[in-house]
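Q: Given only this backbone (116 positions), what sequence would you predict?
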């Protein structure tokens, strides 16, 4: 059974920082990419950042470029999202995603709330 364990969400003031972590537990297999998505109330889920596992290529949504940094630990099969200069519009449930051979796996989600 594949399980993605997320941690690091919480409440922070605007301008503050948070670091999200997502670790794969259970069954081990090759990873093509991991990333973070978010969903705010009344909005669709959107990609925040993504990183390929072998080459480490990254993608960021325009709204977070320059503020968020995604990184990975290959040995621990863990992905991190460092979020700086947080804004109230970053408030959402953040979901970890793992892609393996075209199949997506999701974490349970962690709430990030940024107060103004």
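A: Predicted residues:
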């Amino acid at each position: 059974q594949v399980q993605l364990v997320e941690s690091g969400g919480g409440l922070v003031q605007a301008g503050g920082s948070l670091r999200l972590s997502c670790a794969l537990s259970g069954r081990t297999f090759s990873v093509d990419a991991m990333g973070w998505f978010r969903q705010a109330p009344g909005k669709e889920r959107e990609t925040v950042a993504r990183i390929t596992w072998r080459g480490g290529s990254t993608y960021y949504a325009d709204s977070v470029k320059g503020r968020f940094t995604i990184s990975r630990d290959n040995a621990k099969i863990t992905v991190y999202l460092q979020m700086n200069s947080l804004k109230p519009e970053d408030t959402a449930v953040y979901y970890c995603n793992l892609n393996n051979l075209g199949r997506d796996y999701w974490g349970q989600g962690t709430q990030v709330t940024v107060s103004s």
